[in-house]
Write a structure and sequence with these properties.
heterodimer; A: mainly alpha; MetI-like fold; 11 helices; B: 263 residues; mainly alpha; 13 helices; 0% strand
Chain lengths: 269, 263
């Protein structure tokens, strides 16, 4: 009894540690202050200043950039990852092993090393600064996850589906688009979601590869630049709160649905 | 002529574009880092960079700081996360609960770090090693809980019952049964916390007001200052850390699910 109580207390303390900063920021996002006071009482002014402050323009650009880069690079990563997963699956054992080991590298490597190695590469071969570098870099760290999401599904497919399509006169291309793709669609989508999220969330690789002369910022690099000069202005509290609620809400819902589905499946069996 | 005839559009061909992409944007950049480590500012071959890194006081301080903060963060995370994961593995609804514990890691780390920083500043807490450690633990605790929970909740309960039936008391059951069975989770937790802790940049910089520099911060700084040689050496040192931890992880994971490892 006593042990159970202390176990629960311990869990609650750790949860409080994890969520206290988030809750404090959300509460004070309604105070329109950066020093945790209530000069005007409860107000939505901080939220309003997201669009009215003198940084609104730069902020909007940063958000648009973040979304464009995430959309483009996750799309490229998903297409390339899916197509190459189909190819990798049919490679010989050693070639496949090698390809997958190299594919694994961006995942295990520390982000900073990946970031500077790409930066040195871009500088050495004088790639134009800007979107091109950023999108290549994002595709490079997103595609491995797409492959890891698609490849296991492909390997669990019965090869006779593909062969049957060929026997019935389909070209390899048609066999893949009409037979294989529909079967692996769910894992392609989850690979894409992962790639999109990772690209949205990235800071280190973007910061190091965005270049200095272009002035391109994503939300995280703009936050970094702005917070380094001075503290956080009230509108950042509002943005943080929106992100907290959005991210936590979406991830929680997605996972709860997943858990419920698993339970239902178990019950059916 | 014969060559061309032999070329068929098999599925294998589909992998070539990405293999080329990996060669260009993963392999060659790493080779460039290796090459740059042996070049001086004029592009001549030299081992001077190694000398600079391993004798210069400031870079040794960074190395020391990184190891100190990395080891301390990892230990604190392990001490907190192990009991959390262990308790959670006993609950039936553990899956939903563990979700609550790892949820914050989906929020961008910069946002979480700055959130803790403004709170520290408002509370008049002096920014330094203490706040850096807090920020690191705050950021990386979920990465320790997750693998530990996966391993602990997959331990077959009958092992524990067998140990109890054979007369082991609770301490012995833990030390001789549960702990050895969870080694792979401990190791992957350590890797998932230690490597990012020493290589992230911005966290220690923000939470110490720029007084404590870790590996990630100084790699970034060296390249910003155009010191590619020394920056490359530091990246190689970082890579060595990554490879060692990966090697250790795959060794212990051999009979389990060896995911996310190289060997």
């Amino acid at each position: 009894m006593v042990k159970k109580f202390f176990e629960k207390l311990f869990l609650i303390v750790i949860l409080a540690f994890l969520y206290a900063p988030i809750i404090i920021i959300i509460v004070y996002s309604f105070s329109n202050s950066s020093n945790f006071t209530w000069p005007d009482g409860f107000t939505f002014e901080a939220y309003r200043s997201i669009v009215t402050s003198d940084k609104a323009e730069a902020l909007k650009d940063a958000i648009v950039n973040t979304l464009i880069i995430a959309a483009v690079s996750s799309a490229i990563a998903t297409v390339m990852g899916t197509i190459s997963a189909i190819g990798i699956q049919t490679l010989g054992r050693r070639a496949k092993r090698l390809a997958l080991d190299v594919n694994q590298f961006p995942i295990i490597n520390s982000e900073i090393v990946m970031a500077v190695s790409l930066m040195v590469f871009f500088v050495t071969f004088s790639f134009p600064e800007g979107y091109l570098r950023l999108i290549i870099a994002h595709v490079a760290f997103c595609t491995p996850y797409v492959i890891l999401s698609v490849l296991p599904k492909l390997e669990s497919l019965d090869p006779s589906f593909y062969e049957a399509a060929l026997d019935l006169g389909a070209s390899p291309f048609k066999a893949i688009t009409k037979v294989v793709f529909p079967l692996i669609a769910p894992s392609i989508i989850s690979g894409w979601v992962l790639a999109f999220t990772l690209s949205l969330d990235d800071f280190i690789i973007t910061q190091i590869n965005k270049g200095t002369s272009t002035g391109i910022n994503t939300l995280s690099t703009y936050l970094y630049a702005d917070a380094r000069v001075q503290g956080l202005e009230p509108f950042w509290f509002a943005i943080f709160s929106i992100i907290f609620v959005l991210v936590l809400g979406v991830v929680l819902t997605v996972n709860l649905v997943k858990i419920r589905r698993q339970k239902e499946r178990k019950n059916e069996i | 002529m014969k060559r061309i005839k032999n070329f068929k559009l098999t599925r294998k061909v589909f992998s070539y574009p990405y293999i080329l992409f990996m060669l260009l944007f993963i392999v060659i950049p790493l080779v460039l880092i290796l090459v740059n480590a042996f070049l001086d500012a004029e592009g001549n071959l030299t081992v001077e960079n190694f000398k600079i890194f391993f004798t210069e006081r400031s870079s040794l301080i960074v190395l020391g700081n990184s190891l100190l903060v990395g080891v301390a963060t990892t230990l604190i995370c392990l001490v907190i996360a192990y009991p959390v994961a262990y308790i959670l593995s006993k609950y039936n609804s553990g899956k939903i609960l563990v979700l609550l514990f790892v949820l914050p890691m989906w929020v961008n780390f910069l946002i979480r770090t700055l959130a803790t920083k403004v709170i520290f500043v408002a509370l008049d807490v002096k920014l330094g090693i203490g706040t850096v450690l807090f920020g690191m633990v705050y950021n990386y605790l979920p990465f320790m809980i997750l693998p530990l929970h996966t391993v602990l909740s997959s331990i077959d309960k009958s092992y524990i019952e067998a140990a109890e039936d054979l007369g082991a008391d609770r301490i012995n059951v833990f030390v001789k049964t549960i702990l050895p069975l969870s080694v792979s989770g401990i190791l992957s937790g350590i890797t998932m916390v230690f490597i990012p802790t020493i290589s992230t940049f911005a966290i220690s910089q923000f939470l110490s007001n720029g007084t404590i520099f870790l590996f990630g911060d100084s790699i970034n700084m060296k390249f910003e200052q155009g010191l590619y040689g020394v920056g490359s050496i530091m990246s190689i040192v970082m890579l060595v850390f990554v490879l060692i931890s990966n090697f250790l992880m795959s060794k212990f994971n051999r009979n389990g699910a060896a995911r996310g490892t190289l060997w």
